[in-house]
Amino acid sequence: MRSATTPLDVLVPGPEHLAADPAERRLQELYAAGPGPWVRANFVSTVDGAAWGPDHLSGSINDDADWRVFRVLRSVADVVLVGAGTARHEGYTALDRPRGLPGDGRPLELALVSRSGRVPQQLTEGDRPPLVLTGAAGARTATRMLPADRVIVVPQADDADEVDVRAGLVALAALGLARVLCEGGPTLLATMLAAGLVDELCVTTSPCLVGPGPSRIVAASPAGAPGQEQPAAGVPSPPVPARLARLLHAPGTGTLLARWLLR
Known about the structure:
CATH superfamily: Dihydrofolate Reductase, subunit A
Structural class: alpha/beta
InterPro entries: DHFR-like_dom_sf, RibDG_C, Riboflavin_Biosynth_HTPR
Order of helices and strands: EEHEHEHEEHEEEHEHEEE
Domain Bacterial bifunctional deaminase-reductase C-terminal: 37-214
Largest sheet: 11 strands, mixed
Protein name: Dihydrofolate reductase family protein
Organism: Isoptericola peretonis
Strand content: 25-35%
Helix content: 10-25%
Keywords: NADP, Oxidoreductase
Number of domains: 1
């Protein structure tokens, strides 16, 4: 278990020093969502751009500073959105609100994006299964594994078997899940960026290098790559402009935590 005791310095718009706070009140203020429906993505990357470590898991490149912000982002979200393959590869289970942090009392939902409709076995066995955003073919598979009210069918207009992520976000908002936190993977993030669906991107830069091999945090990975079962990714064109809203620094390690506004 990571520790939430690592101090942080706010460099932008700072300066400000954030001592350890079990309730993370100030961090919640710094990461408050924008008005209305809000889509935030949160990723970790090494200095040389890797989205995961030698074990193909993102947890091997994060640290205690990243853990503080990770918990806060989940505490202020309504739903965590993730590709089904990433959920399977990273070992996602049913989500709980981070302990000790203020919240609105509602459970934190998990929503999977899956063209195939396949749901990781560990997520079908609990009392609160995930929501699944899928197309027509995937819905037939998903409804064999989950209650029908947990399957959201959002086919694309030109291909009913593909997932319309934009329509999925609208459907989640209609369920009261307007504050969306996307946690991966890189192909799903690429798809959402290309469609202009991301309001902000939070990126932790971990002070290490892992060399060639791992994907970037925005990448169209080849079939069979670790954790990939997302829709085919597009490429943002022209490049998406980003405005730095927050930059935090962990003085003990050099870890940087940036909050970039994209709209």
